[in-house]
Design goal:
The structure holds two protein chains of two kinds. Chain A is mostly helical. Chain A contains 15 helices and four strands. Chain A folds into two domains: about 40 residues; about 220 residues, MetI-like (MetI-like fold, Orthogonal Bundle), CATH 1.10.3720. In chain B, strand 17 and strand 18 form a beta hairpin. In chain B, the strands form four sheets. Chain B has a six-stranded mixed sheet, sandwiched between helices. Classes of the chains: A mainly alpha, B alpha+beta.
Chain lengths: ~300, ~375
């Protein structure tokens, strides 16, 4: 008892060491972000100087000006279904369009993944049907497949669906994310069978049971999945690079890469682009942080 | 308010395991039926078939006059209380109770009236705004019962509702269920493995084992006239004692020989044996611990050596070794000599007997009661 109290109330070497390690790690992870954000406001000379400038001596917006003036694209282009016509918005700096594209891509993948994965995970966990084991095995196998392996078939598939160089080509492959189904299956396993039976006796239809009982119960899982998918989609540079090509369809990371290709040494511009690209994902992370940690520690704390 | 009729109900899992065999039972309107038996006896499966949560492999199930084999649970007009309570954790107590009514698109004020009424009956009005997490086990159980009450179902199903509670709370809730039953007066089917619950709650008890009904009867009937050794051993604590014995025809009557003691049987028992044309037969003698009493050693007594004596306060449970057989005696402490009040020392030699009218005779082969 005494020993336990000792551990709780007093500083121990163990605690001191863990805090030090955490501080070092936090510093290591935060430093690049700090470097990018401050760097994006530095002058070209300061960025390229051999002695690092830890803090901009002069805050300038030239990098952002360059980012927004270099290329332009329509604010949006919405194809009208069943015609070849496209409604386009006013012309704006391409970076803005890229940001919109990226957010659209990530949000759409996130929403669609959450819907499909929750439904699939719930049915795999709680419904008895022929081939259930096989389907689940296939999903687990698919988790082990590297993206590169399915790349060629995927491109052909997207071509056949006339989605090549469209946002759909980077949204739909994410939506079939096997990990999402796996995660939601694990969460759904935790729903007591008796609770679903109670709902059945109470008169809830399959859809009502899912929406009013299952979804609220697996909400932490959905939250975790949402943020995982958002980050996964946002960071899926490889797929974006393969699937998207025209200026107005690029994502922010592709756009920055293109700018970098044009002006290979303009780090200020790249940092401005990177800083801009980090804003949405940081926002999402901060909002969903709670679910994020829950998702990671899933299974470790039950109850 | 309805009768429930089970005709030849059978449950087979995966074409292999038969969980319930030819279950026949007619439950009267407003009757409280308890299904009792050890785990795996098929009692819960039977209840779940009545609820519609399990398919019925064969047989017919009627609620009232309606055959409901293929009717969805929600349309059977039943409500069920689960062992784990199965409350919806994200809803308040009020919403938990109102959920079924909302799904039935009942007017708001009617829902409100029913929920508040049920809450008042169950004394949970002050918790209506809370989530289940913030309630104790007993309170959660009340909410689960409340959720069933508001439906005003024809049949009330309860699947081991008290098993998750501690002993004290269980006794309390058992009394509450008896009170509740008087208030809401509907047909109850109650599943438990606890014979005390079965005895205290049921109008009739169905005792099951390995998917077969062993006996159906009032608590008094199954206690006084168990049809077989399983029922005899299952009902009553401590368990009934069984001895090897032999009935022998002597003159016009019958004598019972067991472990050296010779006893005369009652007239009624002798008639029964005579009717079966028995001249001599090995039997298993069953006698309840409370029906055994200490006696002066004589021809009609069995000798034994005390193993353990458990002082329970008002009575003493005496475990003795009679000729290699463990026997339990339940003796009111007032009947004990004063030197034995605090317990009888290990190894003490005693003699005991039992009145012939309270003993049971079973066929050692079939385990059936041969006096019924």
């Amino acid at each position: 008892m005494n020993n336990l109290n000792h551990g709780v109330h007093h500083t121990t070497p163990y605690k001191v060491i863990s805090v030090i390690i955490l501080l070092v790690m936090a510093f290591l992870f935060l430093f690049p972000l700090y470097w990018i954000v401050t760097g994006s406001f530095k002058t070209m000379k300061e960025i390229n100087s051999t002695t690092p400038a830890w803090w901009p001596s002069e805050w300038v917006l030239t990098n952002y000006e360059k980012l927004f003036s270099r290329r332009s694209a329509p604010l949006f282009s919405i194809p009208i279904p069943f015609t070849d016509e496209v409604v386009t918005g006013p012309t704006v700096p391409a970076a803005i369009r890229w940001l919109i594209n990226t957010v659209w891509m990530a949000v759409a993948s996130m929403v669609l993944t959450c819907i499909t994965a929750t439904m699939a995970g719930y049915s795999l966990a709680k419904k008895r049907f022929v081939g259930r084991g096989l389907v689940f095995t296939l999903i687990v196998c698919a988790m082990a497949l590297p993206k590169q392996v399915i790349l060629i078939p995927l491109i052909r598939e997207m071509n056949a669906l006339k989605l090549y160089d469209k946002m759909g080509a980077v949204i739909f492959p994410i939506v079939g994310w096997p990990f999402g189904v796996f995660l939601m299956k694990q969460f759904s396993e935790g729903i007591p069978g008796e609770m679903l039976e109670a709902a059945r006796i109470d008169g809830a239809s399959e859809a009502k049971t899912f929406l009013r009982i299952v979804v609220p119960l697996v909400k932490p899982g959905v939250g975790a999945l949402a943020i995982f998918t958002f980050i996964n989609s946002w960071n899926d540079y490889f797929m974006q690079l393969i699937m998207l090509s025209s200026t107005s369809n690029l994502t922010i990371s592709l756009g920055i890469a293109q700018l970098q290709a044009e002006l290979s040494t303009d780090y200020g511009l790249i940092m401005a682009g990177a800083a801009l690209a980090a804003v949405p994902i940081l926002t999402v992370f901060i909002i969903f942080q709670k679910y994020f940690t829950q998702g990671i520690t899933m299974g470790a704390v039950k109850g | 308010m309805a009768t429930v009729t089970l005709k030849g109900i059978k449950k087979v899992y995966d074409n292999k395991v038969t969980a319930v065999h030819d279950f026949d039972l007619e439950i009267a309107d407003k009757e409280f039926i308890v299904l009792v038996g050890p785990s795996g006896c098929g009692k819960s499966t039977t209840l779940r078939m009545v609820a519609g949560l399990e398919d019925i492999s064969a047989g017919d199930l009627y609620i009232g006059d309606r055959r409901v084999n293929d009717v969805e649970p929600k349309d059977r007009d039943i409500a069920m209380v689960f062992q784990s309570y199965a409350l919806y954790p994200h809803m308040t107590v009020y919403d938990n109770m109102a959920f079924a009514l909302k799904l039935r698109k009942m007017p708001k004020d009617e829902i409100d009236r029913r929920v508040k009424e049920a809450a008042a009956i169950l004394d949970i009005t002050q918790y209506l705004d809370r989530k289940p997490k913030a309630l104790s086990g007993g309170q959660r159980q009340r909410v689960a019962i409340g959720r069933a009450i508001v439906r005003e179902p024809q049949v009330f199903l309860m699947d081991e509702p008290l098993s998750n509670l501690d002993a004290k709370l269980r006794n309390q809730m058992r009394a509450e269920i008896i009170k509740l039953r008087q208030r809401i007066d509907t047909t109850f089917i109650y599943v438990t493995h606890d014979q005390t619950e079965a005895m205290t709650l049921g109008d009739r008890i169905v005792i099951m084992k390995d998917g077969f009904i062993q006996q159906i009867g009032t608590p008094q009937e199954v206690f006084d006239e168990p049809t077989n050794m399983f029922v005899a051993g299952f009902i009553g604590t401590p368990q009934m004692n069984f001895f090897d014995g032999k009935v022998v025809k002597k003159g016009d009557g019958y004598e019972l020989h067991t472990h050296g003691a010779v006893m005369e049987l009652t007239k009624a028992a002798q008639e029964k044996l005579k009717a079966q044309n028995i001249t001599e037969k090995d039997v298993t003698v069953g006698i309840r611990p409370e029906h055994v009493h200490l006696a002066e050693a004589s021809k009609a007594t069995l000798g034994a050596k005390v193993d353990v004596s458990e002082m329970m306060g008002s009575e003493i449970y005496l475990h003795v070794d009679a000729d290699g057989k463990d026997v339990v005696l339940r003796i009111p402490s007032t009947e004990l000599p004063s030197e034995w009040r605090a317990g009888i020392p290990y190894g003490t030699q005693i003699a005991f007997t039992f009145p012939p009218e309270l003993l049971h005779l079973f066929d050692p082969e079939t385990e059936k009661n041969i006096l019924l």
